[in-house]
Amino acid sequence: MTLTRLLCAAALVCGATPVLADDFITATSDDAFDDVTFAVESAIVGRGLVIDSHTHTGDMLERTRADVGSDVVLFDGAEIFLFCSAEVSRKVMEADPTNIRYCPYAIAVYQRPGEPVTVGYMHRDEPTMAPVNDLLHGLVDEAMNG
């Protein structure tokens, strides 16, 4: 079984709804956006990781919507957490120093109008990135399933 299929199977067992598109792994929740965002942040910090950046992408897009000539509301909320793990990063970069290009790691939380909250992360197909994929999957699973 490929890692991607294994991740999908694990997500289904845990009650998440996985969707694969361009290696962006997602799961959805009917919980409130703020609750899901808090759960993702708590999962990251709870593992002793430091959030380098917490972007408020949805706020920026809404604030600048008219300025760029658009009337499309993309998100009811959209935030991205950027963070790194010294242990995992060292492991994947010792295996392949070019893996530096993937650090920091990101988990996005967003909600389109009228849709459930989505949490997603980039899954990397490189075998040396398996520890990062495992970390991101574990964090999303913890946030979505407690």
From TrEMBL:
<dbReference type="InterPro" id="IPR035923">
    <property type="entry name" value="TT1751-like_sf"/>
</dbReference>
<protein>
    <submittedName>
        <fullName>DUF302 domain-containing protein</fullName>
    </submittedName>
</protein>
<feature type="domain" description="DUF302">
    <location>
        <begin position="76"/>
        <end position="122"/>
    </location>
</feature>
<feature type="signal peptide">
    <location>
        <begin position="1"/>
        <end position="21"/>
    </location>
</feature>
<dbReference type="Pfam" id="PF03625">
    <property type="entry name" value="DUF302"/>
</dbReference>
<dbReference type="InterPro" id="IPR005180">
    <property type="entry name" value="DUF302"/>
</dbReference>
<keyword id="KW-0732">Signal</keyword>
